[in-house]
């Protein structure tokens, strides 16, 4: 398939396969409940990982949902068109994901007590992951060369705009104890510790035995083998895993295999300039600036 032209929504480019005028309007009018939990990510930061983790943490490690419900229905995207179709089937407390910047969250989110887990990832690894995703996803624009894709990424001419705008919008959201920040890197480094952190934040009181069980089922290998999570149910015309699997490498630092020293210098210069004066702070055990 050839990708249809992206739509523009409040200045953000979005692929029309997943986003329609109706789905975006539905998201704006969505009635957020106090018990809802949102995992918010810039694309390729660990969204589907959280779609696996959240139902397990919220339901004491019950494996049924992750083995029976595809991830896009189990923990749907706020902005995508399947939400309206599955909303009545969502287990309570509901878990959702979104790539929206803070400014596009619905009014009911802002007045609710819903909690947010914001997952950050090294933008260089995001760009690499996204580059391969654009090669395998038939509904996304051809990425061109790595160099061309870097230009687009840095200019924000990719879906959901600039990474720096996304991070800044959520770092400045002032949601207080409703928001928890975590990095993809700390999840890779020590998943059980990250799960304890998430479980405490959500007030779930999980035993160590359950934490270990969840960690096992959310490992990269287990998720690669879970047909409800690896997108093998999606027709090849939309996602062709022969070109690049969705669960591709699952590591921190793959950018080192892709960036030339010139590209690294250019990327770092643009990103640091845009983050100048921003206090990104501490996420769990990691100082955020250390993973950038
Ligand atoms: N369990 C686990 N462990 C480690 N890494 C994992 C895991 N699950 C998903 N991933 C990696 O997350 C990357 C995909 O990001 P997203 O899920 O945010 O993509 S999307 O925005 O929903 O398209 C993509 O990263 P890359 O491998 O670097 O491409 C996935 O492999």
Automatic annotation (TrEMBL):
Its main location: cytoplasm. One of its GO terms (molecular function) is sulfotransferase activity. Belongs to the sulfotransferase 1 family. PANTHER family: SULFOTRANSFERASE SULT. Residues 34-276 form the Sulfotransferase domain. It is found in: Cytoplasm. This is Sulfotransferase. The keyword Cytoplasm applies. Keywords: Catecholamine metabolism, Cytoplasm, Transferase. It is an enzyme of class 2 (transferase). Signal peptide: none annotated. One of its GO terms (biological process) is xenobiotic metabolic process. It comes from Oreochromis niloticus (Nile tilapia). Its EC number is 2.8.2.-.
